[in-house]
Amino acid sequence: MPDFRALVALREQRGELVRIAREVDPRHEMPALMAQCEARRQAVLFEHVRGSRFPVVGGVLNHLQALGWACGSVPGEPFGEDDLLARVDHALAQRIAPVTVPAGPVQEVVQQGADVDLTALPVPTVFEGDSGPFITGACGIARHPETGALNVGVYRVLVLGRDRLAVNAVPGSDLSAIYRHHEAAGTPMDVALVVGADPALLMAAVCRLPAGDSELGVAGGLRGRALELVRCRTSDLQVPAVAELVIEGRVDFTHQVENTLGEFAGQYGTETAPVTVVQALTHRRDAMLHAVLAGRHAEHVTLGTMATAGLRRTLAQALRAALPPLADLHVYLEPALGSMAHVVLAVDKADDDTPQRLIDAAFAAPVPVPGGTVPASFLVKRVVVVDRDVDVHDLADVEWAMWTRTARATKFRIEGGVESWDLERCARRGSGSLRVAVDATMDLADRERLRRTVIPGAATVRLADYLRPEAP
Ligand SMILES: Cc1cc2nc3c(=O)[nH]c(=O)nc-3n(C[C@H](O)[C@H](O)[C@H](O)COP(=O)(O)O)c2cc1C
Questions:
Q1: How much distance in Å is there from the Cα of 425 to the middle of ligand 1?
Q2: How far apart are the first and last CA of the chain?
């Protein structure tokens, strides 16, 4: 399975990587070019970045197939979200613990003390309202205080100066619990940020695992081989031996900074994080920085699938358990619809009240989350009920039903003041946010009149059977 460099090389061999030799400014200019490459499903390598001697690579994991290649699927083989979930399930069941090795390429160059200068790294500043340059492709490693296991997550990291940065933990993440523990206990906390780690580790890092459960074994399971770790130079943390660069730091809870970054739903999010004082920077001699373009962009969203695919499945299971048998169901969780889930239920209804009853039961369904359950309304912005003839997996078909089968005003309902998860940025503290319920089924009295236009037999007639066979 390709490691980070091999995956970059594979993208290039397949004609999926653009090299840019012209010097670019990491502030806005580089992100603008990254966005254009991503729109073409291409990765990009910036060979000359103003103010830095390190090149930058972006978009390495900007489509699902690339995630697949990192865990054993071969180019050309179809690879979708279900395949990804199957690989993760397999890796969770067949974990491979990491092994410790004495040395690795990530420590070819070691800088400590006054030699450390983060401002010499080519870290992009993406959006006009961002607090500054953010490292977005790093795996953050910290030790779980109770189990001693190494916890890994992908966190945005604001560069504050030569030896200062802020690693952001959203509420509910394991890192936020580790922060709280050390801050309350007044004990020192070390953190390491790994850039250009094995893609399987990046993928495992984004998965939501139970607290105290290490992502390193899951990464081993995904790549089918143990990760090799080396000891950090200034702490007892361990980091992958093969990676581009590592920043070792100690968290200073006495200084907290606000950090604003454009997020995956296309809006800014402001969070507060403690300052980390950098103790060491280690890197390969020819290191490159992996930058994941922040915001509603392909690599961020594709990596996010590691978390959202599992959440979609959990939501679907919770809804099926709470509702009577349905003809079909689909949970949408995609940036085009914001940060919240949208649920579509297909039914064979016996009366016109059934859809509203289903909607109430769907919003109230208990959904398991780390530490307990929440009602589905916490995560779901909209529930739409459609007739069986509508394809719940095709949002365009669902939209069609919503606007062609709804004449009574009561077909649409808006609830206000519903408590919401932190990533719904339009929700207001204390007064929550709105939820939308749509009964997009035909009223029974309208069934004949509003029937869908269908060509009889169209589903079984195959054009290929009517074309002349090609000459051999
Ligand atoms: C590009 C990217 C940036 C992310 N930024 C953050 C972040 O700033 N803070 C955070 O807590 N989670 C962030 N996440 C999501 C976490 O990686 C994910 O929730 C992970 O499971 C957290 O790990 P933990 O619970 O072990 O701490 C980001 C994910 C991606 C793909």
A1: 16
A2: 39
